[in-house]
Give the backbone structure.
Amino acid sequence: MKKTLEPRPIASPARDEPPSAGLSDDAFLGGRLQLLQPRHGYRAGIDAVLLAAAVEATDAATANLLDLGAGVGTVGLCAARRIASLRVTLIEREPELCDNAAKNIQRNGLQAQVRCVRGAVGTPFGQLAAAGLADESFTHVVANPPFMAPGTGTNSKSRLKAASHGLQDGQSFDDWARFAARMLRPDGSVILIHKADTLFEVLSSLDGRFGAATVLPLHPRAGEPANRIIIKAIKGRRTRLTLMPGLTLHGEGNSFTPRLDSILRHAAPLKTTQ
C-alpha cells in the first residue's frame, strides 16, 4: 500500500538580486516558493497550484514527474516542494520561459530535485532522448494544455500569452495525449487541468490510451457551473470514468474557501480519486 506523505516544512527560499523590469517576484504556497514570472501576458496562478496539488505523494524513491509546457516551472516546482522524494523534469519550448524556470529552480534550492529541458510536444523523440527524456520513463505527466485551436480566439499583445493559449499550427489535443502516453510508464498517471467545456474533447483524446479516469469539477462559487476540470487517468487501464464531487473555490466576495486556502497557502494535497 502506498504511504501518503504530509507536506514537508520548508524554509523560506533565498532571494537573490531584484527581478528585472519585465518580471515579478511572486510567492506561492504561503511563501514556500518564490517564483519569477513575466509581469504581463500569461501568469501562473490558482490553476497551476491545483494541478500540482493533484499529484499523489508517495514514499517511492523512483517517482518522477514530467511538467509538459512548464512555463516558468510553477506546477513542477510546487509539486517538488510538497513531495521531497519526487524528481521533476520541466519541459518548455520558449527559451525565455525556460531560462526563468532555471532561475526559479536555483533560487528555491531545488537543483538536486528539478531540471528544465528545452522542448515541446512536437520535438523529435531522438532529440528528447538525447536530453534524457526516454520513452516510458515517468510516473506522472502533468499539463495545462492550450485550449484554442490554431487561428481562433482573440489576439494577445503578449506573444508568450498567445502561445500558452493556442495550439501550434497542425497540432491538436490528441498530440498532447499521445505524447503523454509515450512518456509515461505502464500504470503511470496523466493529470490535466482544462476548461470544463472541453471535457468531451479531452476524454476522446485519452480514450484507448488511458482508463480509470477521474474528473474533478472546479466551481467558481457554490451553485455555479464548473469552469475548470482536473482529469486524472492511468495509462493502459480500462476502468470506467468516475465523476468526483466538485471543489468550490470562492466563498463570500472573493475570499477562498477553507479547502482551497489550505491548498494555496499550506501546500495541502488535492484528492482526485476515491
